[in-house]
Amino acid sequence: MHHRSLARRSLLARAASLGAAAALPPRPATAAPLPQGAADRHHRYEPTPESLARHRTATWFRRDKFGIFLHWGVYAVPHWGDDDWSSEWYLYAMNASAKGGVHERHRRVYGAGFPYDAFIPRFTAERYDPRSWVRLFERAGARYFVLTAKHHDGFQLFPNTASDRHSVALGPHRDLVGDLFRAARGTRLKRGLYYSLGEFYHPALGTPPVNPYTHEPVPYTGYRPVDDYVRQYAHVHLRTLVDRYDPDLLWADGQGSHDFAGGAGHIFRPARWDWRGDEILAHYYNRAELRPHPKEVVVNDRFTASHADYAVVEGDKPSYPLRPGPWEACLTMSRSWGYMDPTYRIKPAVQLVRLLVDIVAKNGNLLLNIGPRPDGTIPGWQRERLLAIGAWLAVNGRAVYGSRPWHRAEDGAVRYTVGEDGAFHIIPLSRPSGRLSLPADLPLRDGDRIRLLGHPGGPLDWRRTADGCEITLPTGGPPGPGGPEFPVVLRAVRGVDR
């Protein structure tokens, strides 16, 4: 994640690892080996624009609408940021001497001789219970999740042969990706993985880490020297994630070439660079397609490939436009993407529900981020907000899941969706009182019945007026979960209620 959107010399000799690399654990369930003749029964993708363009966005992605993003890694240990830097950018921020908040605080709290990698042993995950995470996601009404398999600091939550900078060799000594994927097996949750293509600092990118106070070289813990960062490192990681865990979604990031000044240096990749994204997409699509029972998978638009299944809009925006193609808004609950304590700019639950409604009405998905602690627990204020969203969806989910946009997404503070069964949904972002006046061109016909979801009463009275239509709302307390500030859903159907 970009640090400003609330979220992101010579080569060193091989760095000394903090611990010996552990043997790879048994593989979780993955795609079956490709049977002989499978390519004849299904379409094989080639790493070319023409071939990849045949891939269509997964039906489940367009239907499911709501997912959970998880930024979890070593940066959860210092868990600190400021107005310039989100916590998951700590490694870069401690090098930004010209923007001294994190840089000076690190010196004061940990000392100039304490490198970022000294946090790795403190990233323990000792209370990590992936089954409880999965239960929380289900209770939140989420239909998919995306876990940061590797963020910009280069620490990997999965074992692999390209590096020893991972959670089985170091820190937790657990396959954190595999544990969560196994816990979600057998649920309706689709499973996704985030992967940062570039890194803040990496010897093979020409950006070996240095002490930000002395400017002397420091080891890059777990580094195995490579000549080709893309082929021998990034693609090994990505193929491991695809082949070992069989994800339903791949979410790329860290693909650009940036220098945000402040003395922290150039990051992610050199100016002229090729991630060879078409090769990864073809491999991923083929693993999903060339099996006895093909499955639908999706990738976002950050692989710098010739194709993408959907677009990403990152961070809070003044407004979101109605888009014809599939897209996803990824947002945080607060200032930071990674765990930060104390935190600020925390969005109340009602704001998160309103954002979900607004984004879905405009043909998008909401990928809502949480940041677990280094011990693997999810802060209570994050859990409370997820459960509030889930309670709202339990009553009003028919206006969200499987919905599609109407030709106009909004009128003032009212949003519209069309359900899978053709029902028309009118969603005021906060509960109106008395009568709700709406434009005349809404697809309402004489004899249609309108109900307020979550309200025990019968159909609402409504009538046409000289310049529109008017719906009489019930008196009394708010329907369903939340209070009067939460969105409500008016469901209009043809002739009889469903």
UniProtKB/TrEMBL annotation:
User: Which keywords describe this protein according to UniProt?
Assistant: Glycosidase, Hydrolase, Signal
Its signal peptide is 1-31
Sorted alphabetically, the Gene Ontology BP terms of this entry are:
fucose metabolic process; glycoside catabolic process
Looking at the record, the residues that make up the Glycoside hydrolase family 29 N-terminal domain are 38-397
Query: What residue spans carry the Low complexity bias annotation?
Result: 26-35
Family assignment? Belongs to the glycosyl hydrolase 29 family.
Its protein name is: alpha-L-fucosidase
Species, as recorded: Streptomyces kasugaensis
